[in-house]
Write a structure and sequence with these properties.
The complex is a heterodimer of chains A (380) and B (103). Chain A contains 13 helices and eleven strands. By secondary structure, chain A is of the alpha/beta class. The chains are: A alpha/beta (380), B mainly beta (103).
Chain lengths: 380, 103
């Protein structure tokens, strides 16, 4: 079977202070236009649409289709947060393979005021609304502060080790004009930053921004001159441990086995990766899941592989430096890896990148994220 | 201590909090309520800042492994620290942990 390919990507400018004229819909429209222009396709070529957002209500995917004037024969609303981008890619790929669409536009966006963000964290789901929000928990930072403590204790990491990851991503961000934080970050800056929830400081927590990302997936032959990026494998694992464990994982991961078997590749083949970085510890947890830390020592991995760029991870600066635009964060890393594989990441290009990995993680159902997925992409 | 209402699976004995419809271990749909009163603190954190909240009073939270099964996110009512055995009760639907039983 000839697999569909990614033929266009787009990302709006991420901004911490959107003007009143910027809405979730307007950001979606802008990202979609960028992605279609990138693919050299007209909106009339689009016959499938997938949408992900926390702040689109009362609208849904069909309202986006109508506002954009799209006529589609396949449509999907996705709502799994940081795993939504890969989930949409997975479903749209299957739809195209099955003949249900030939050109699918995927878009994710969020535009929220701080008040709206705070309201959302208190009402994220019924379990949190009823059993965590009454504690005035202030959002997921507290939960990941405690997860980070478990990770640090288990693997012997100190704040300086997580700092090295954050600083490495900031160095990548210097090469990405789209990142909201681009100025160099030092260890002194990091250790002196205000604590948000011990041990997490300001630089361990993603800057909340407004913005949108979009991706065009098409059947082979369409936009063939636009350096189409191949989709080698996608795997997912949701709600595996039922929130009953520690939220950390340690290799021997069934999802990773499925992924590498489908891809016919292994972690050593990966030239560039976007790993969902809502918090530094989660980058290391996911890299360990995927087999990138075979000796089980994430501390050594940070200093010998991430800080040195021997394993290029989150070359956009990641969410920690580029910004987290809500559900768009689930598509941000995919856009970056596609750019890298097309040789279109000036200022931060990983030369000769052929194989890229993208991971998704998200949706705190009670104590930590319940959704995980991962994709392996291939250069044209 | 009034304790925290948790749910015990009648099929296999798995305990749950928050309440679940089906048992994640055996698939049973039959549960009985019971009251958990004791646990041990695994981690604590103090939330000092939050997006969209000005002048946040620091909030102390804990991960508490209940003696009766589930691990819960709780408030901390006194100076309880990681490793401490604690009493647990429910306030406004949320677990709250404390080293000393309220008199």
């Amino acid at each position: 079977m000839r697999r569909p390919r990614i033929v266009g990507v787009g990302e709006t400018r991420y901004t911490r202070h959107p003007g009143p004229e910027t809405t979730t819909l307007s950001a979606m429209a802008e990202a979609c236009a960028l992605a279609l222009d990138d693919a050299g396709l007209s909106p009339r070529a689009v016959d499938g649409l997938g949408v992900a957002s926390f702040s689109l209500a009362p609208d849904h995917s069909i309202d986006v289709a109508w506002r954009l004037g799209l006529r589609v024969r396949w449509i999907m609303d996705d709502h799994i947060g940081g795993a939504s981008g890969i989930n949409l890619l997975d479903h749209s790929t299957r739809a195209i393979e099955a003949g249900d669409a030939s050109v699918v536009l995927l878009v994710a966006a969020d535009v929220r005021t701080p008040d709206q963000f705070a309201a959302r964290t208190a009402n994220f789901n019924s379990a949190i609304r009823d059993h965590v929000a009454p504690l005035r928990y202030g959002g997921p930072n507290a939960l990941f502060a405690m997860l980070t403590q478990r990770h640090a204790r288990k693997h012997g990491l100190a704040r300086e080790d997580y700092a090295a990851l954050v600083i490495a991503q900031r160095e990548w961000a210097a090469g990405n004009p789209g990142a909201v934080y681009r100025s160099p970050l030092t260890l002194v800056d990091y250790l002196g930053a205000p604590i948000v929830a011990d041990p997490l400081c300001r630089y361990d927590c993603v800057p909340v921004v407004a913005g949108a990302n979009a991706v065009v997936v098409a059947t082979p032959g369409i936009a063939a001159d636009r350096k189409p990026v191949g989709i080698r494998a996608i795997a997912a694992a949701h709600n595996e441990d039922q929130q009953a464990d520690d939220g950390l994982r340690d290799g021997r991961d069934a999802m990773a086995t499925l992924l590498w078997n489908e891809a016919g590749l292994g972690p050593d083949d990966v030239d560039v990766a976007s790993v969902y970085d809502d918090y530094p510890a989660m980058v290391l947890v996911q890299l360990a899941d995927m087999g990138f830390i075979p000796d089980g020592d994430p501390k050594r991995f940070v200093h010998e592989r991430l800080a040195t760029r021997r394993t290029p991870v989150n070359t956009s600066g990641g969410l920690l430096s580029a910004g987290q635009a809500g559900m768009a964060a689930g598509m941000h890393g995919m856009v970056e890896v596609v750019r890298q594989l097309r040789g279109a990441a000036p200022g931060r290009q990983v030369e000769g990148a052929r194989i890229g990995l993208v991971s998704g993680y998200g949706m705190v159902v009670y104590r930590y994220g319940a959704c995980r997925n991962v994709a392996v992409l291939e250069a044209p | 201590v009034n304790g925290l209402r948790i749910w015990r699976c009648l099929g296999c004995g798995t305990a749950a909090f928050p309440r679940r419809a089906w048992c994640p271990a055996c698939g049973s749909r039959d549960w009985a309520p019971e009251v958990a009163r004791r646990g041990r603190i695994a981690e604590t954190t103090v939330v000092r800042r939050a997006v969209g909240v000005d002048d946040l009073d620091p909030v102390r939270l804990a991960t508490v492994a209940l003696d009766d099964g589930p691990t819960v996110i709780a408030g901390v009512a006194d100076g309880a620290e990681p490793g401490d055995a604690v009493f647990v009760e429910e306030r406004d639907g949320a677990p709250v942990a404390m080293r000393e039983a309220p008199s």
